[in-house]
Structure formats: structure tokens, C-alpha cells
Amino acid sequence: MEIDGRVAVVTGAAVGIGQAIACRLARCGARLVLADIDDCAQTLRMIEDTGGKATVVTADLRADAEVARLIEVASRQPGGLRILVNNAGGGQPTARYPGATAAQWSAVLDLNLRTPMLATQLALPALSAGGGVVVNIASTAGLDHTPYEWPEYAAAKAGLIRFTTAMGDLPRRSGVRVTCVVPDWVRTERAEAELATMTAEERMARADPIPLPVLTGAVEELIRDDDLSGHVVVLRPDERP
Predict the structure, then answer these.
(1) Which of 44, 116, 31 is nearest to 81 (CA)?
(2) pTM of the predicted protein model
(3) 90: left (phi over 0), alpha (psi -120 to 50) or beta
(4) Rounded to whole angstroms, how far apart are CA atoms 225 and 70?
(5) Could you count the other beta carbons within 10 Å of the beta carbon of residue 201?
(6) CB 64: neighbour CB atoms within 10 A?
(7) Which residues are catalytic?
(8) Is residue 241 part of a domain?
(9) Domain range for 85
(10) E strands along 37-96, which residues?
(11) 96 and 123 in contact (C-beta within 8 Å)?
(12) Contact 15, 41 (CB under 8 A)
């Protein structure tokens, strides 16, 4: 798919991975719709400073009505919605299963799995009008078979990966491709802060985070390659595409 001139939604666009993806797509000529519960003003400035265009939708995407509002706004943009990047994720940092309440761990499942599934479902009519594409952002937490301190997050990301592959035949039915990027640790501001707290020995024992351009490049490739549907790209520190 050609990106220039296309309308692209990026969820979780205020900081980090979402911000980097939004800025890359803007440099490719996309017209962005930025969605986050937090302030996207910095991302908007970054896009506009390079001549790009963006609309901001402040929304709590754990709520069905807010997801529906986002997709409605994007679908009304000139040319209609063509690209959906389901990046919003994370969740409850202070309480984790089994110590978290059912409401707390359910909220993590909702944001990391139910929200992208719902956004994809609601966006299908607009996306199918022009052969659109969905890119889900998962995590290697959903692939590994080792103990993990945040079980609900790992389970949600595993579900998102399988959701992607299960939708591999969607182009035959609607012309829409669903794809997924599965990164390990990524060099965001949060990762930099974590690195700063580590001892030299701890840093030596851990692989360097994946550079953001590697991740955003994988997203761009999935959007551009019309042959990729149900495709999952795994990014680990020792595996560069």
C-alpha cells in the first residue's frame, strides 16, 4: 500500500513506540489520527514541525464508546481510514495477577487484546473500502514459554498474536490485511530510565534494547507489502530484519 496521503490511526500515540510510529508514518506522507488517554500535544508538534498533518482524539480506549468515537472520527477524514495501528497497551503497573483484583487484571486484558480486536472490527467497513491494513503491536512476552511477572499482559499479547494469524484470510473476504509486530525490549524513554538504574554488571548481562527505527521500519514494511496478511514479525535484540 502507498502510505502518502492515506489516513492512519495510531493508538497510544502520546509517547514511546506509538509516538515513533506516528512520526514515521507522517514522514511517509500519511495523515495521522493520534489516539491516547494522555496528552498527544508533543507528538502533534513533532508531526507539524516536519510539515505533517494530524488530528488528536483523547480517549480511554478501554471503553467501547471511546473506541467507536475514534474510528468514527478517522473514517470521516478526507479519503477515509486506510491504516490502523493498534499500539495502545500496558496497564496496571502497581498490581499484577494473582495479587491484582479481577477488575484490575481484566482491564489489562481489555486494553491489550479486546481494544485492538474491537477497533479492528469497527474499522473494517472503512478499511475495506480501499483495501486497508491493520498492524497490531504485541510483545515477545506473548511468545515465550518461561515464567513472566505479569501473566495477564503476557496472555493478552499471546492472544493478539493469534488473533492476527487467525485473520490471515481476511483479504479474500474484505480486502483488509491484518499483521503484527512482536518486539522485545525497545529503546524508549522508559527503557532509557530503566537502563540508568542498572549497575554496569546488570547492563552487561542484558542485550541492548531494539532501536525505535527498527520497529517503525517493520511497521512501514507491513503496511507497504500488499502480500503480507496474517504475517507476524518478531523483533529481538539479536534478530534484525
Answers:
(1) 31
(2) 0.93
(3) left
(4) 26
(5) 8
(6) 13
(7) 153
(8) no
(9) 7-184+213-232
(10) 53-58, 81-86
(11) no
(12) no
Tens of pLDDT, residues 23-58: 999 999 999 999 999 999 999 999 999 999 999 999
Quote the percentage of the chain above a pLDDT of 90.
Answer: 83
Tell me, yes or no, whether 35 lies in a domain.
yes
What's the CA gap between 71 and 149, in Å, rounded? 33
Dist. CA 123–CA 177, nearest whole Å: 12
Cβ-contact 80, 130 below 8 angstroms: yes
* Residue 219 resides in a domain: yes
Number of domains in the chain: 1
Task: Give the residue among 80, 77, 87, 110 at the shortest CA–CA distance from 38.
Answer: 87
Gap between the Cα atoms of 89 and 153, Å rounded: 9
Task: Please report, for residues 3, 19, 27, 119, 142, the alpha-carbon distance to residue 132 in angstroms, rounded to integers and kept in the order given.
Answer: 11, 21, 19, 13, 26
d(CA 235, CA 138): 10
What span, in angstroms and rounded, lies between the C-alpha atoms of 207 and 202?
10
Asked if residue 152 belongs to a domain, the reply is yes
Alpha carbon dihedral 22, 78, 69, 189, in 10-degree steps, equals: 10
